[in-house]
Amino acid sequence: MEYVIGVDLGTSAVKVLLVDRNGQVRGEWTESYPLYQPHSGYSEQRPDDWVEKTIVALRRVWETAGISPESVVGLSFSGQMHGLVLLDGDGNVVRNAILWNDTRTTAECREIEEKVGRKALLATAKNEALEGFTLPKLLWVKKHEPHLYERARTFLLPKDYVRFRLTGHIAMDVSDAAGTLLLDIEKKTWSEEIARAVDVDLALCPPLVEATALVGTLRPDVAEQTGLPASVKVFAGGADNACGAVGAGILAEGKMMSSIGTSGVVLAYEQSGEKDFAGRVHYFNHAEPDAYYIMGVTLAAGYSFDWWKRTFAEDVPFAEIVKRAAESPIGANGLLFTPYLVGERTPYADADIRGSFIGIDSAQTKWDFARAVIEGITFSLNESVEIIKASSKTIDSVVSIGGGAKSAEWLQIQADIFGIPVEKLKNEQGPGLGAAMIAACGVGWFDSLNQCADAFKQVDAVVEPQSDAVAKYKELFSIYRDVYPYTKEMAKRLKAFRP
Ligand SMILES: Nc1ncnc2c1ncn2[C@@H]1O[C@H](COP(=O)(O)OP(=O)(O)O)[C@@H](O)[C@H]1O
Ligand SMILES: O=C(CO)[C@@H](O)[C@H](O)COP(=O)(O)O
Fold first, then answer.
1. pLDDT for the residue 32
2. Does ligand 2 have an atom closer than 6 angstroms to the CB of 262?
3. Which of 114, 375, 482, 483 is the most core-located residue (most Cβ within 10 A)?
4. Which ligand is nearest to the CA of 265?
5. For residue 377, how far is the Cα from the chain centroid?
6. Which ligand 1 atom lies nearest to the CA of residue 431?
7. Where are the domains positioned within the chain?
8. d(CA 494, CA 497)
9. Residue 428 — very low, low, confident or very high, per pLDDT cuts 50/70/90?
10. Measured between alpha carbons, how far is 268 from 218 in angstroms, rounded to an integer?
11. What angle (nearest 5°) sits at the alpha carbon of residue 363, between those of residues 357 and 367?
12. For residue 317, which atom of ligand 1 is closest to its CA?
């Protein structure tokens, strides 16, 4: 039996899946790494942590599955998007990576809007200047750490850096490059116009490849460390949301995905790259060549849940917290939560907003708070569902992936808040599966990602919305929506007191 490997470089951990020709997951291994948040709004990771942990996970996955490593024929990647990795001329990392959920770059976003022009930005990059994207981070380093910027010769995104270290080849795939704000989304080339306007040398941009492209094989030293054969074919791979969409079979119009990882994402397939969504949603190239997707992003989805657990119930496992939270009624006995712990993206592009609990009552317990957190995260995702529905897409169901899809109770809350049936897959690791599917097509097992998805995607259950719950959540959602405008100015005034 032959196998392929999908590596998902997430924000909380690297998750490696070993998959056979029938799409059965034969092995899984996860290695976590720290996130550094020295100030409010800052979020960094050490790129070499990603490499070290990926190498450990690649060895452990075949060892624990008890297979011969010689039977692994292909490998590909899915990665957290937008993070800036700067390399010097010798391929060494110049500073810690600045991640997608780092919001220190509001001034740089305004600078991009002013110099490129919002109209030109939306025509070429198809997206607004948001703090999370890569170009504002590049400009921040240029302004605040000029000595480091001068040393930089190339910039990469997180999974591209790991792939470079594993194969020795420098490249960035188009689906991830779409999140830099430097890509001409329709032409799939670096935009000279944007680079010139903000005075960034295009020589910093790496060669572009499709997510499905073969980029090389493993370096001999990496083969030795991982125990895998040096002949393993390595395919570029894509942005985690693009790969999540591949793994969830979002490869045709009318299909939608919700992902609750560290971030929260609601995504829909888009055949054309020529539309104008006026920046209301992110509009990126898919991992499938010549396809696109639109999505809305909640910055702190699983991250809010993580924060709550860390702060109020450290020793209680996630699954147990969800179970206890589900015992609290819909609306958590009158408590509402907004998940703006690190600012927000969709629908409020606001780096200064912070979260709230509204309606605290002496009768509430800590499990009401847990329920409010879970509901608040899902309300935030529902803002994106509403925008996508309004963009004239007919959506019959949503495929749920990510850590948040592990709990049946949370899947029911998603179905009830979205008012749409929610599909649960056998394995919630959509991005890792999508990466494995890219490798499976690359080594010739399938002719197309669509054909591979038909064989690999395994729906475990469909969770139907319950009409009583849908009605109650509709009412709660309208209260939830009022919290942002009422707290916006207060959050700005509190900024001076944040660490
Ligand atoms: N059993 C569970 N039930 C619900 N949510 C969970 C469970 N286990 C983990 N999570 C949530 O999933 C998140 C991790 O999801 P994951 O998709 O692995 O994230 P990432 O890709 O960002 O590393 C955690 O932050 C946590 O909030
Ligand atoms: O910034 C975005 C998408 O624009 C995030 O979705 C990142 O891609 C990180 O994803 P997770 O670690 O939550 O999977």
1. 97
2. yes
3. 375
4. 2
5. 15
6. 21
7. 3-241
8. 6
9. confident
10. 34
11. 60
12. 1
Q: Please report which ligand is nearest the Cα atom of 403.
A: 1
DSSP state of 69: G
Calpha distance 248→457 (Å, rounded): 7
Using a 10 angstrom Cβ sphere, with 0-12 exposed, 13-18 middle and 19 or more buried, the burial of residue 90 is: exposed
Mean pLDDT score, 57-64:
98
Residues 435, 9: Cα–Cα separation, whole Å: 10
Return the residue matching tokens 């790991």.
162
Chain centroid, CA 103 distance in Å: 16
Ligand 1 atom closest to Cα of residue 303 = 25
- Cα(260) to centroid(ligand 2), Å: 9
| Ligand 2 lined by 159 (C-beta under 6 Å) | no
What is the fold of 3-241?
Nucleotidyltransferase; domain 5 (3.30.420)
| CA of residue 241 to ligand 2 center, whole Å | 7
pLDDT of residue 427: 87
Choice among 184, 240, 368, 416 that is catalytic: 240
- Alpha carbons 25 and 427: distance in angstroms, whole number: 8
Cβ-contact 28, 61 below 8 angstroms: yes
CB 178, CB 191: distance < 8 Å = no
Residues of the chain with pLDDT > 70, as a percent, come to 100
What is residue 396's predicted lDDT score, i.e. its pLDDT?
86
Q: Phi-psi category of 28—alpha, beta or left, where left has phi over 0 and alpha has psi -120 to 50? A: beta
For 176-205, the DSSP string reads HHGGGT-EETTTTEE-HHHHHHTT--GGGS
Spell out where 25-157 has E strands: 25-32, 44-45, 72-79, 85-87, 97-98, 154-156
Residue with tokens 């094989």: 217
The span from the CA of 65 to the CA of 233, in Å, is 20
Annotated binding site: 81-82
Residue 266 corresponds to which tokens in the numbers above?
A: 């609601």
**Length in residues, the chain:** 499
Concerning whether 396 is annotated as a catalytic residue, the answer is no
ipTM of the complex: 0.98
Whether 5 and 18 have beta carbons less than 8 Å apart is answered as yes
**Does residue 283 have its Cβ closer than 6 Å to ligand 2?**
no
Burial 299-308 (b: 16+ CB within 10 A, else e): bbbbbbbbbb
Structure tokens at 183: 């890509």
Whole-number Å distance, alpha carbon 220 to ligand 2 midpoint, is: 31
